[in-house]
From TrEMBL, chain A:
The lineage of its organism: Eukaryota, Fungi, Dikarya, Ascomycota, Pezizomycotina. This is Signal recognition particle receptor subunit alpha homolog. Keywords: Endoplasmic reticulum, GTP-binding, Hydrolase, Membrane, Nucleotide-binding, Receptor. It comes from Trichodelitschia bisporula. GO terms for molecular function: GTP binding; GTPase activity; signal recognition particle binding. Belongs to the GTP-binding SRP family. Residues 130-294 are annotated as: Disordered.
From TrEMBL, chain B:
GO terms for cellular component: endoplasmic reticulum membrane. InterPro entries: P-loop_NTPase, SRP_receptor_beta_su. It is found in: Endoplasmic reticulum membrane. Keywords: Endoplasmic reticulum, GTP-binding, Membrane, Nucleotide-binding, Receptor, Transmembrane, Transmembrane helix. The chain crosses the membrane at residues 20-40. This is Signal recognition particle receptor subunit beta. GO terms for molecular function: GTP binding. It comes from the Eukaryota.
């Protein structure tokens, strides 16, 4: 069974939730952090994403334009077939019902008496799952008796407590339910809304409401069913016809009366509500009213919610279908195109996939030109598209500018580390207890030894005692190269009265992992603060050499494993980063990247993005030149600026 | 001319001349008006006061602003986007700019105050830092509220919660300092910041005073390693090449020694620390409202 279901805003406020078994906030927090912020860990296709954590399975949907997230949590042991349907339905219902409240700025308050809808949904879906055979019958019949728009129209004014004066009505949840749901099925809800305050005013002025309510209510007990069923097509047609002030008035009285009447039986509400319609349009209602189930008041309520729910869902589906259908007629499309062009300049355009596609192609090209690997560029553009579909452009912002903004945000988010590394603090924390071990890996010729010496120089400036371990026992000349670096560094430090450096070497041909471990032991004995281990360069697709890294990580137990990558490398960066990240066995990953030769690529710094994108591991340092001091930390703004520069 | 001669200015000034009487009369009438004008000038000038709520993830920012809005917290999860709410100052508090007004003054009632909650996750902090010093047409916030989880800071060595909070606060203070330095030529604006030691209802929570000294000490350490650390890549130019590294001043002017919030007053940043909680037993949010009332 479902453990918990929550509706929350992207700003972190839970609007509505249902808990069957307490799950704790951490599961959903983890979902938000991993999926929405770090963008990793999704299982399943994009339309039905799934996330697993601590024995729970979480499924979710988002409503971008309203900033909502719908999350269902259940035990991974169970498999509940209808969760996806539930999520889709709840999303459609919730957004339709409370859309206007959700759009009110500067408040987190949303009156959402959603319980009955949810219960009803669960019940239906469970039933459906249970008796798959009878399902089709009940389902379709339910759909048939409720054409969209049934008895809905009248109460549109009540739907939004945001409209002044309606707070009272909103307090009575059951009542509000009926009204709000009533309203939504109307095919063109947007058109109907602006009218509502006017009706309201008229309604308030109406005299004698109370009396008539009582009498009608009495009548309703007897004749509720026909009235309630009075429905659909003809009533919605009615409301489109202009003169309906009188009708509205009656409606409003009902609303007020009920809202005041706290002790009123909840289940009653639909009766008078329906009753109000009767004088105007009862004829067709009568024959539809012969549904037996609808005479009992209890049944009534449930049915009512079910009806409106179905209607909402239907209209939502219809909308989807229409959106998928695309253009509608010659005139419509050309007008739409002109409007679109206009909106593109002025803003306020609702973004569709087509609008985005063209500009996103351009953006993708742009990223590729900046040396971002194709895979990363495509995925970035996809995520931007996902972010923007259904959003409105800001005032005086073109689609292109909107995409630029979104891409900038995405890049910034990717490049910013979750928790920045403060190397000096980490070393300080273990200083005196044991040496802090950093090892450097990477493919051949990317500048491992050079960057190792740069880090060494930086540590020496901070007056640490550093031991360099020559772990490259493979390539001839590697040890000599380190020896030269060590000598240079020693001279520099002697002049500057900085730290102390030594080289730990065991010649060629020995096992690198053993040397590394011995170096750490030696450093501990000799009281070194930091050990920097150089390793042999290896092709990331060389199985044999890559597999030795696992043993290396086990034996040397480095605090940090940093991978050096070239800024020039281009699309190979993704695979390099992935393979090295996976090479250290389960439970051990890379801790960061050093991107070398950044001074040679100008503004084509895409490699940084490719590597981070492939692994989610941050870039710690950038090599920017030939000198020992040419080591920099990443400054996200600079890199984003370079990437977006045209 | 001596002052005591019949034509001296003092004698004239005390003589029953029409001009003397007129001038005296005008001053008598104008003085109260000027006094009034002076006292209420600041009140009239304020637009809607706007406070920015910052702090590490999970500190209780969203819970705090929903409490300010409705009096009780809602359930919350990690935030992804900023959120602005309007909350009226409770009747028990009086804005400092209106302290001479009668309690029945209609102008006092219902001052709406805007609070902007920001996400505290490491990857999303740029959103908050962008709001501290917004692009010109938008006015900067009236004040900053930095929320920390008083139960997650402990003096143990290498406490991650403390480090994270201190690093974030360091960055915020540094951003304010930079903005102040940049604006110095024209109008450098003072900006108050309050550190809310939240979740005081919890058994493990540290009192506000301790939170203050822990944060100060930790910021001192952050400042030091930042100064000794590797500099960031330069801005501008054609790429990430070596040259254009700008040396920027450390927080509070120097990198060594003890850091105290007091030194930030030199950059117009007034830091105070209050305790509070939104759930359970404790001081509640009155301390924060007191501070807010003092700023508007
Ligand atoms: N006991 C107690 N818990 C609190 C208090 N304030 C907040 N919490 C809890 O702390 C958790 C995190 O609160 P949030 O408001 O979501 O944290 P946040 O600062 O908005 O975090 P981000 O949105 O990730 O930046 C929630 O579970 C709150 O219930 C408090 O005063 N006392
Ligand atoms: Mg939050």
């Amino acid at each position: 069974m479902l453990d918990s279901f929550e509706v929350l805003t992207t700003s972190g406020v839970v609007l509505w939730s249902r808990t069957y078994v307490p799950v704790g906030a951490s599961a959903i927090n983890a979902l938000i952090q991993d999926i929405f912020i770090e963008e990793r860990g999704t299982v399943g296709d994009a339309a039905r994403p799934t996330y697993k954590r601590d024995g729970y399975t979480l499924k979710w949907r988002t409503a971008k334009d309203l900033g909502l997230i719908f999350v269902a949590v259940y035990q991974s042991l169970l498999s509940i077939s209808w969760i996806d349907k539930l999520l889709d339905n709840v999303r459609a219902l919730f957004t339709e019902l409370y859309r206007d409240q959700l759009k009110v700025p500067r408040t987190t308050r949303v009156e959402c008496p959603f319980d009955p809808y949810f219960d009803r949904q669960i019940k239906e879906l469970e039933q459906e799952a249970n008796n798959a055979t009878t399902r089709s019958f009940t389902d379709s019949s339910a759909a048939e008796i409720t054409p969209p728009g049934s008895e809905a129209n009248e109460l549109s004014a009540e739907e939004h407590p945001a409209v002044s004066g309606l707070r009272k009505a909103a307090k009575k949840p059951m009542y509000q339910d009926s009204t709000s749901t009533d309203v939504t099925p109307i095919a063109t809800p947007d058109a109907s809304r602006p009218n509502s305050p006017a009706h309201l005013l008229k309604a308030k002025a109406g005299p004698g409401g109370r009396v008539s309510r009582r009498s009608r209510k009495a009548a309703a007990v007897v004749t509720s069913s026909p009235a309630a069923a009075s429905s659909g097509d003809e009533s919605s047609a009615n409301r489109r016809a202009a003169p309906k002030g009188g009708k509205k008035k009656m409606r409003k009285w009902d609303a007020e009366g009920l809202a005041d009447e706290d002790d009123g039986v909840n289940l009653d509400y639909s009766a008078p509500a329906a009753e109000g319609e009767r004088p105007v349009e009862s004829l067709e209602g009568v024959d539809q009213g012969s549904w037996g189930t609808r005479t009992a008041t209890g049944e009534f309520t449930l049915k009512d919610i079910g009806d409106e729910m179905d209607a909402i869902l239907q209209s939502a589906n219809a909308k989807d279908a229409k959106a998928a259908d695309g253009s509608s007629g010659l005139v419509g499309s050309s007008l739409g195109a002109i409007g679109g062009l206009f909106r593109n300049v002025v803003g306020g355009k609702k973004l569709t996939r087509e609008d985005l596609n063209k500009s996103l192609k351009g953006m993708e090209e742009h990223l590729l030109k900046k040396n971002v690997a194709r895979e990363a560029a495509v995925r970035l553009c996809d995520s931007v598209e996902q972010d923007l579909i259904g959003m409105k452009t800001g005032s005086f912002t073109s689609v292109e500018a909107t995409i630029r903004g979104a891409m900038e945000r995405a890049l910034r988010q990717i490049l910013t580390p979750t928790s920045p590394l403060d190397l000096l603090r980490e070393i300080q924390a273990v200083q005196g207890k044991r040496p802090y071990v950093i090892s450097i890996v990477g493919v051949n010729g990317v500048g491992k030894s050079t960057n190792l010496s740069k880090i060494c120089y930086f540590l020496l400036q901070n007056k640490y005692r550093v031991l360099i371990a020559a772990g490259d026992t493979f390539r001839s000349g590697a040890v000599e190269q380190l020896r030269v670096h060590t000598r240079n560094l020693r001279e520099l430090t002697a002049r500057q009265n900085a730290g102390e450096v030594d080289l730990y070497e065991r010649g060629y041909g020995k096992d690198a992992a053993t040397i590394a471990r011995d170096a750490v032991t030696y450093a501990a004995q000799q009281g070194f603060d930091v050990v920097l281990i150089d390793t042999a360069g290896r092709r990331h697709n060389d199985q044999r050499l890559m597999s030795s890294l696992e043993k290396f990580a086990k034996m040397a137990q480095p605090d940090k494993i940093l991978m050096v990558g070239e800024a020039l490398v281009g699309s190979d960066a993704v695979q390099q980063a992935r393979n090295f990240d996976a090479a250290f066995g389960a439970g051990r990953r890379l801790d960061g990247f050093i991107v070398s030769k950044c001074d040679t690529v100008g503004d084509m710094v895409g490699t940084l993005v490719s590597m981070v994108h492939a692994t989610g591991i941050p870039v710690l340092f950038l090599g920017t030149g030939q000198h020992y001091s040419d080591l920099r930390t990443l400054r996200v703004e600079s890199v984003v600026e370079l990437l977006m520069r045209t | 001319m001596a002052w005591h001669s019949p034509d001296g200015w003092l004698t004239q000034g005390l003589a029953p001349h029409v001009s003397t009487i007129t001038i005296t009369f005008i001053i008598t009438l104008a003085l109260p008006i000027f006094v009034h004008w002076y006292l209420y000038r600041s009140r009239a000038a304020t637009v809607t006061p706007k406070f920015l709520v910052l702090g590490p993830s999970g500190a209780g920012k969203t819970a705090l602003i929903t409490t300010l809005e409705r009096g009780a917290p809602t359930a919350t999860h990690t935030s992804l986007t900023p959120l602005t709410i309007a909350a009226p100052l409770p009747a028990t508090h009086t804005p400092s700019s209106a302290r001479y007004r009668s309690t029945n003054d209609a102008a006092l009632r219902l001052v709406p105050i805007l609070f902007t909650d920001t996400p505290g996750h490491g990857k999303l902090r740029h959103l908050a830092l962008g709001l501290i010093t917004p692009a010109p047409p938008t006015p900067p916030p009236t004040g900053l509220i930095f929320v920390v989880d008083a139960a997650a800071l402990s003096s143990e060595a290498d406490n991650a919660g403390l480090r994270d909070a201190a690093e974030y606060l360091h960055d915020v203070l540094l951003a304010l300092q930079r903005a102040y330095e940049r604006a110095k030529s024209s109008v450098a604006r003072e900006i108050p910041l309050v550190v809310v030691a939240g979740k005081l209802d919890l058994f493990t929570a540290l009192p506000a005073g301790v939170v203050r000294s822990l944060l100060e000490a930790e910021i001192g350490r952050v400042r030091e390693t930042k100064a000794r650390g590797i500099v960031g890549v330069g801005k501008g130019g054609d790429g990430l090449g070596g040259e254009e590294v700008v040396e920027e001043g450390a927080l509070g002017g120097r990198a060594e020694g003890k850091f105290e919030f007091g030194v930030m007053e030199e950059w117009g940043i007034k830091v105070s620390v209050v305790g509070g909680n939104v759930r359970g037993e404790g001081p509640g949010v009155t301390g924060l409202w007191d501070w807010v009332a003092g700023q508007i």
